[in-house]
Amino acid sequence: xxxxxxxxxxxxxxxxxxxxxxxxxxxxxxxxxxxxxxxxxxxxxxxxxxxxxxxxxxxxxxxxxxxxxxxxxxxxxxxxxxxxxxxxxxxxxxxxxxxxxxxxxxxxxxxxxxxxxxxxxxxxxxxxxxxxxxxxxxxxxxxxxxxxxxxxxxxxxxxxxxxxxxxxxxxxxxxxxxxxxxxxxxxxxxxxxxxxxxxxxxxxxxxxxxxxxxxxxxxxxxxxxxxxxxxxxxxxxxxxxx
Length: 242
Known about the structure:
This protein has 242 residues and is of the alpha+beta class. It has helices at residues 3-19, 46-52, 81-86, 146-153, 156-162, 187-235; strands at residues 42-45, 55-58, 75-79, 92-95, 106-109, 111-112, 118-119, 128-129, 133-138, 163-165, 173-175, 181-184. The strands form four sheets. The protein has a four-stranded antiparallel beta sheet. 25% of the residues are buried. Residues 62-67 and 69-73 have low confidence and may be disordered.
């Protein structure tokens, strides 16, 4: 690595690390209670929301005629399970499958050690869900907030409801989000919780960025110092053995 690149890497790490405290998510909202002190929110199984059409559960399949069909056939970018769990952009290119991922779609793995749901934003939009990914689309945003849905699906309680162990030797569990019972407060309340969940997701991304930079930077610094130490040795002329 050149000196200029190393200086740039140090600056990037310092900027990311110093910005981290400003990305701290807000404290959670308190529960909505009735006059007798009991929670007022009803819970609905996600499977029932899918049956009602409020959420569409897409599954990867062969190409079909659609308004989402690309103008030209070819390779498409796919969002894989490892991308969802690591917070990285779509990382695979494969033959086209449908449908396209839209902004606000919720994606989560079919097999996982820990359930992580992700809302499609930025580079996710216009890619495709890989074969190991559940692809959920909210069709009624006045009933369900996508960020609220993804945040709750990522919780430990939802994970317990959604998962079933595939075998005694497996380290991953099969995930079926249809089994999860989701509390459905009024939409304005959901959006407030959704904002908190989104802040948590963005903070998680920022922490991972600092972590990744923090792993790479010491290695680059070590190699730079080692290169400096090797330089005098490389400049020396070999001497003949006597």
